[in-house]
Specification:
Number of domains: 3
Largest sheet: 5 strands, antiparallel
Order of helices and strands: HHHHEEHHHHEEHHEEEHEEHH
CATH superfamily of the largest domain: Rhodopsin 7-helix transmembrane proteins
Number of helices: 13
Strand order of the largest sheet: 4-3-7-6-5
Number of strands: 9
CATH architecture of the largest domain: Up-down Bundle
Length: 424
């Protein structure tokens, strides 16, 4: 295949890929991650389209397109910085910051719009192999500033990611690696062009942006890695006796502490990035309870963003409460949740002991029947009058109203009175 044809086909393919990624991002526009992804890939898409147009138009028409291309160059660096900084939770997206990024893109277009505007002193376009390219380029006083700031913005975003990888756990390192690869792909392509390794008529930037877009898509949407820093990841969480697991809106495990890994039999933490159903959990009681906690709707009762407590479960000889805490502080709308297993074995043992003692006490009290109040008794024959006015023997009255039974004998006084001959 003729080289220039192959180059144009690859450039068009890169633009198609980036355009498709914009459409994918649009499906997630309700989230912050979706909007940031759309902005970043849209800049890359515009850059790729401008490269293709400049390669096929006559040289006299290529110069105005260069100013438009500069807008997407600056915008791509700015959105990369914002995208990586936001995912690393290193910066807040405030209107002044977003406005500054937009102004930087406009500034790049203004200083590049014509020769002598500050970016370029002189440019000349020629055609080689049927492609239009810049044959002569004299830089202006703002060229180094423009290129330096663009590189600094991209490297600054990468620095945010590296710092988050150091703070985070295993999953943060996986996420961070993907983000860094995506960020460096356009930089590598740009270095090939600036250094002269790539011929000027074959601009590799569209391919670099296509690689960047695919990698970022894999990191952000394909694997659901919407946050670089795992929630609640700290030494304190690792040392807790409670099992803690963080799940995303697709039921995939974002993070889990050492206690939870031990309870579910996942000491190697192979669950990270997977659902509970995709991996074998050695403790079936824990697996079933966690699957239920994953699929349970937290808004069905109208009590959104509230804690939900499930029935306790028994794992081995230990009893655990299950508590689900929705993560509501994130502004990207992701329905993440924290599932905690709290060891309540001692509490359950105490409750069981108290229940046993109460049962024994109630049983003992049930066998005790007492007579209270004033009993009208005859002063002579000792018969007792009941509530209906009937008189009955003392023995009969007590036997009818208590569980007492009588045995008969003779006291010493009565014995000496009734049987004097037997008295000694």
């Amino acid at each position: 295949m003729i080289p220039q044809v192959a180059y144009l086909l690859l450039t068009v393919l890169a633009a198609i890929i980036l355009g498709g990624l914009v459409i994918i991002g649009w499906q997630h526009r309700q989230t912050r991650s979706g909007w940031l992804f759309i902005a970043l890939i849209a800049m890359s898409f515009g850059w790729a389209v401008l490269v293709a147009l400049m390669a096929v138009v006559p040289p006299e028409l290529a110069r105005p397109l260069l100013g438009v291309k500069a807008f997407f160059i600056a915008g791509s660096a700015a959105t990369t910085f914002v995208f990586l900084g936001a995912h690393a939770r290193a910066m807040r997206l405030t209107p002044p910051r977003l406005g500054a990024m937009a102004l930087w893109a406009v500034f790049g277009a203004v200083i590049t719009w014509r020769d002598g505007a500050g970016m370029l002193a002189a440019t000349e376009f020629s055609r080689l192999d049927g492609l239009t390219y810049i044959s002569t380029l004299e830089i202006g006083p703002l060229y180094l500033l423009f290129v330096g700031v663009n590189f600094a913005l991209t490297l600054g975003g990468v620095a945010f990611v590296i710092a988050a990888m150091v703070r985070g756990g295993r999953l943060a390192k996986v996420q961070g690696s993907l983000l860094i690869v995506g960020a460096f792909a356009p930089l590598f392509a740009n270095l090939l062009l600036i250094s002269g390794i790539a011929p000027r008529q074959y601009d590799p930037m569209p391919l670099g942006h296509a690689v960047c877009g695919v990698v970022l898509w894999a990191a952000v949407f394909r694997h659901g890695l919407l946050d670089l820093v795992p929630i609640a990841r700290s030494a304190l969480v690792e040392s807790l006796d409670h099992g803690i697991m963080i799940l995303d809106d697709l039921g995939r495990v974002i993070d889990l502490n050492r206690t939870m890994a031990t309870l579910v039999g996942d000491e190697g933490r192979t669950l990270l990035g997977r659902t509970l159903l995709e991996a074998r959990v050695s403790a079936p009681e824990a697996r079933d309870a966690l699957v239920r906690a994953t699929t349970l709707s937290l808004t069905s009762s109208g009590a959104a963003n509230t804690r939900v407590t499930l029935e306790p479960i028994t794992i081995g000889t230990r009893v655990f409460d299950i508590e689900i805490v929705p993560v509501s502080q994130r502004v990207d709308g992701a329905a993440a949740r924290i599932v905690m297993l709290r060891d309540v074995t001692a509490r359950q043992t105490w409750f069981a002991e108290q229940a046993r003692l109460i049962h024994e006490l109630q049983h003992a009290l049930g066998e005790v029947r007492t007579l209270t109040g004033l009993l009208p008794i005859c002063a002579s024959c000792k018969q007792i009058r009941d509530d209906k006015g009937n008189w009955s023997d003392l023995e009969q009255y007590i036997r009818a109203r208590t569980d007492a039974e009588f045995t008969h004998g003779i006291c010493p006084n009565c014995a000496s009175h009734l049987y004097p001959e037997s008295a000694t």
